[in-house]
């Protein structure tokens, strides 16, 4: 396998990681956590989601968080927006970049957005156009590209069709999401070979969930296929509120450890990242599930025993 010399990690923990939490994390705690993440070497942090708080109450303080963080030079602070209303609020908060989202499977799209895929395109097209007119780059998320909790198999042709449409509408990159963690390395290899035959690799990113323990293996295959942008969530925090059984995201800290051991540069300091992990798991009053955090807790317990 051929691997890249450097990988860009996009940290989605403050958004994708926290959106499922049942207990509302205080606004200042979120701000403090993002400020810690900003000092780890991360160059991209998705800080919140400007979605109707009725749907994502855990992120109802999106504006306050975006305005309250300390912005470090060289770090992009992004936020998810569903439509024009969310975009307007995100622009008022002056986020650096926005992301739009939809699904490759129609049923999941309806459960998530309450619209069919075809009905979603005009909404996102307007949002993308207005965001770019305001000087903001726009990223796209595409869920369920390797499988859907309602429809099962999703054809690579369907995922390719929606990805191409999003790029045509003006997003600079589509993050391909394995929302319920059903993808396997052979499937990832086959699909990426098909997709990159018509879509430039630099316009694609990967967003794996670790529901079945496949996230790192799938990431390796993605990197060997030439994809160099990977989403991660510190400690494996997160999931999908519309996909039962969808446990945490690919853990950023486990990914950084693997890359470091392989001699692949990420620019991120693992020690600082683990410290930020300690902060958020203490705040949430539950342990993060990544291997690096488990090791760090064990080491800390041994030192204090």
From TrEMBL:
Listed transmembrane segments: none
Pyruvate carboxyltransferase domain boundaries: 7-274
MF annotations from Gene Ontology: hydroxymethylglutaryl-CoA lyase activity; metal ion binding
Domain of life: Bacteria
Record has Lyase as a keyword: yes
Protein name: Hydroxymethylglutaryl-CoA lyase
Originating organism: Alteribacter keqinensis
Any one of the GO BP annotations: L-leucine catabolic process
Pfam hit, one: HMGL-like
Listed InterPro entries: Aldolase_TIM, HMGL, PYR_CT
NCBIfam families for this protein: PRK05692.1 (NF004283)
Alphabetical keyword list: Lyase, Metal-binding
Protein family according to the UniProt entry: Belongs to the HMG-CoA lyase family.
